[in-house]
Amino acid sequence: MLASLASIASLMLSTLLMMAGFGLMNFLLPIRAIDEGWATFTISIIATAYTFGFTLSCIVTPIFVRRVGHVRVFTALLTLLTVSVLLCSLVVDWRAWMLFRGLAGFAIAGAYLLIESWLNERVNNENRGALFSVYMITALSGSIGGQYLVPLGDPSSTELFIVCALLFCLALFPTALSTAQSPAPIAEAKFDLKRLLKRSPVAFFGSLLSGALSGTWGSLGGVYSQNVGMTTAQGATLLAAFLAGGAIAQMPLGRLSDFIDRRLVMIGSGIFGLTACSAMLIFGGSPVALYIAGFFVGTVLYPVYALNVAHANDMAEPDEYVKISSAIMILYGLGTVTGPLMGGTLMEYFGPNGLIWFLAAAFALYAGYAGYRMTRRPSSEGPSEKTDFQSKPLPMQGPDSSGGVGDRLS
């Protein structure tokens, strides 16, 4: 195990530094946007440009990797990420920020893909769980640490933007100077939406909803924290509570779904998420209550993506896994693009709680549709043997994205 950890040490150091910059950037920019007086809907449009760039990169980046290799593309993407955050500090205009955030989304998605592809070649059945756990902890720690840098500076000045750019630049060194062998080129993504819909309608619909859930909170959670009167330190803690809940609950929830009908777990997750969102609405005046309720929302907001993948794989033939998982990724991406627009619109009309109402409605739809599908396809009609649940954090949101995109495209 020590040898396995040593083989990914430089990769994990790059991940830690990159995710620290990512956490800082994703909390800093919404706060700066609020300071500039931009409307919530305007901020949601900027977030949509980011998720569009992220989704596009998942398709385009493998082409570049096949031409020039992992290390060169990783260097180019982190350079692009650095340029994007510096441009945000130089040109403070929401129309320009749409372009800059689109570039950032493209760059960070490609970086995730490369890191995960690299990691997948370093793992085997014996050490897969341990090494991906190290990856998740590293990414989560970096993101949370980056968020807590925001209270130490002034979002209205350029210092925090420069710190963010420095972190991205430093993330280049460990992998650029590593003597470890680069992984094999990434294969082109192939997806089949019709086959996914036929095999698992609940995963098809659930993928859109899981993208809307995580994409909306990931894009507008910082805006919510500021609009309800939290300090930047309290806002960072709220975002960290969501992430921690998702990281802790994913495997227990997934293992439970290995022993019972996964759709029952989907129903339970939707109801639990709806209840936790209701608690945020009721007890929203207390920061501590929001931390606790947010933690419980996170326990189901992030893991539902992996439940969709597991259920679709249950219904698929082994040679369909890659196409179906890639189709789920595309649908998830569509959800992340449209979710912030709808959530931002609700926040514009109903205030910050409009975001929580949106999350609650999405959870209710997730549970309701899973229940409907149970009436259409009884559990006795499912596979005689399930696939084993695997931890698959989100491909569209960085802080807990381990084994996501790269696992399906490599």
* Structural classification: mainly alpha
The DSSP helix count reads: 17
User: Using only CA atoms, what is the Rg?
Assistant: 20 Å
Determine the mean pLDDT.
84
- Strand-residue fraction? under 5%
Q: Which overall shape is indicated by the principal axes computed on the Cα atoms? A: globular
Largest sheet: none
**What is the percent of helical residues?**
over 70%
Which secondary structure elements does this structure contain, and how are they paired or packed?
Elements: H1 2-7, H2 9-35, H3 40-68, H4 70-90, H5 94-120, H6 128-147, H7 159-170, H8 172-176, H9 193-199, H10 201-227, H11 232-259, H12 262-282, H13 287-301, H14 304-315, H15 321-350, H16 353-376, H17 405-409
Helix pairs in contact: 2-5, 2-6, 2-7, 2-10, 3-4, 3-5, 3-10, 3-15, 4-5, 4-7, 6-11, 9-10, 10-11, 10-14, 10-15, 10-16, 11-12, 11-13, 12-13, 12-14, 12-16, 14-15, 15-16
Short description:
This protein has 17 helices and no strands.
Folded structure, characterized:
By secondary structure, the chain is mainly alpha-helical. Helix 3 crosses helix 10 and helix 4 packs antiparallel against helix 5. The C terminus is likely disordered. It comes from Ciceribacter sichuanensis. This is MFS transporter.
Annotation keywords:
single chain, 410 residues, 17 helices, globular, disordered C terminus
